[in-house]
Input
Amino acid sequence: MAKVAVGDSLMPQQGFGEPAAPRNRLAAGENGRGPNAEVDSSDGSSGDGIKMKKELGLMDGVAIIVGVIVGAGIFVSPKGVLLYSGSIGQALIVWILSGVLSMVGALCYAELGTMIPKSGGDYAYIGEAFGPLPAFLYLWVALLILVPAGNAITAITFAQYLVQPMWPTCEPPYESVRLIAALITCLLTAINCYNVKWVTRVTETFTGMKVLALLVIVAAGAYYLLSGNTELLENPFENSKVQPGFIALAFYNGLFSYSGWNYLNFVTEELKDPYRNLPRAICISMPAVTIIYVITNLAYFAVLPPDVMLSSQAVAVSLFFWSHCY
Output
């Protein structure tokens, strides 16, 4: 026999033969669905599905794409692109074409996002096309391999740039970089588990730091060029590598920096008028990111000789050290 504790709500319960009272909207937080969830009652039934509120506008979509793409890649990939391109001119072409290819892929995803207007990105599209099992397997591969590997690269890059100023003329200790990267990963994981507001503040802080770092790099390169130091750009296609294998590896390094162009599709349901704003956000953000990357690499190439850039573990740190010492 069921017991009723003191303070339990003694409300009439719905019987087996009684129809449920229709409700068009769930209250905030009811049944654990949160304030952004609402019942889809467009077909006259109640409780058939939950959809997110459409609160993201065009500029929000642009900010999401730019914020996700601009990350560790622009501080890591320039070395690899130059190594397999062989020349400054060919490296810049690879950066431009990588942006074009990424934009084509993003527009294809935009078509998927408008045909299948569901949040979840790859998981939603694989589930719609091939069923729940392949989608489930993809999700587990992403959670166990793809995302952790990307986060590890980002953490190691951050640690490398953090300790490189202490060893400006040589490579920092291997163990120190890995231990700091592991500590940063554990710290960010704890913040994500503890408080969502803290996560937002940390994300905004690091995004601002990335943008500021790129602006400082571009400003340093522009100042160096305007001072008349253009000798490194006089023969831009010298020593170019035209073998297909080298070109493919150069594009691999360049495309890594553009990864993240599909992230807006993960929140398609929350985007206002996705049929218009999704492709518009892509058409605004991808050219902007491409221009930022090309200008940043031009600043690298204007200041750093190719051999110095290829031997550096932290290109941006080497740029400031070289510009001040030489």
User: Anything to note?
Assistant: The chain has eleven helices and two strands. Residues 119 and 267 are 5 Å apart (CA to CA).
